[in-house]
User: Fold this.
Amino acid sequence: MLTKRIIPCLDIKNGRTVKGVNFVDLRDAGDPVELAKIYSDEGADELVFLDISATEERRKTLVDLVRKVASTINIPFTVGGGISSVEDVEVLLQNGADKVSINSSAVKNPQLINDLAQKFGSQCVVVAIDAKQIDGEWVVHLVGGKVPTEWSLFDWAKEVEQRGAGEILFTSMDNDGTKNGFANEALAKLSELVNIPIIASGGAGTIQHFVDAFKDGKADAALAASVFHFKEIEIKTLKNELKNNNIEVRI
Amino acid sequence: MKIVIIDYGAGNIQSIMFAIERLGYKAVLSSNSEEIKAADKVIFPGVGEASSAMKMLVESGLDTLIPTLKQPVLGICLGMQLMCKSSEEGDTKGLGIFNVDVVKFSNKVKVPQMGWNQIYNLSSPLFSGITDNEYMYLVHSFYAPLCNEAIATTNYEVEYASALQKDNFYGTQFHPEKSGDVGEQILSNFLKM
Assistant:
């Protein structure tokens, strides 16, 4: 059976991990490569690196990081943040990234999805969608949930699938940071609507939330950051509990 | 030992290079027939779309070279699919090393299959030391059905061949370079052949 995936997300600024991490045994808690190695050893199925730096040198720093990660870990990883062109993607893939995630640039220029899928294959194109509810409607937002777009979550998901996205990373801005669970209703609807894998993001607080995202939300993978970084949930424990709940995982 | 990764413009080559380095070897990238022929081991990578990858192979003349190679050859992912007789993707004629036609998953399951799935019915020195039901990382929309040359089986909607072997030619649908320590063991087995 294809297993459900657990994906820790690391926020990167100028080549360093942001958001404090609570790993006492880590020599350098800000070193993304060291953290990536630990997660990989603990049984993470994939990793996501989200670059939030805004400096001129960001591209070079990110490429250096991708090379270091790819040379160190032997599981797949996705790189996102500020990617807006075929050239951006080419250099990341050439240096060992497995997938890239695009968000605002896809909304601004949907053709980018087609171009990337055609040149590199759908398997490496993850479209990240941030959405929140306005008057009961799920509306796609940009700039970390600040700017609403014309798109409804479900229309946009269908659109990106048709344009060749290989996977959708759906973050519910309503749930993100609350630790109250994932947006399972919207997730389940998305999962029925499109035929590409859905990664659930936003709201993880307990192990039960992951169980619910897979059972009720029908998600193919679940992503979280702080619960892993602060060791509130250990990946090994999480996967064992998922298995106890009859959810297929790689142990 | 000389390891050559065939360079024809398709594939996440860097990950394979790094995986080989982690195992203590060095690989070179090449599209040169003489260099490929002289190698001890040849790796034939590939991601992307079948017909355009095949076109690049034909343009470089590698389509006629690869089936004549005598040393161990390992095709990975699309590389494996191109070693088959044909692929439904882009109605592509393959290299015909494996006597099987690659077809697409139906829309009853999510396509691409993306993630970790088990391999079983393992029957090749490629899997020496590997037990049935280990998890491998796979990303693909097309698959090789079960056939005489299958050396590993995976189940996703149907049971299919997730690895193939004929004589000195090996192919894996999964990515050993991205499949954790077990994947590295498989790669190491290949390099020690």
Notes: Chain B has one domain: 3-191. The domain at 3-191 of chain B is CATH 3.40.50.880 (Rossmann fold). The radius of gyration of chain B is 15 Å.
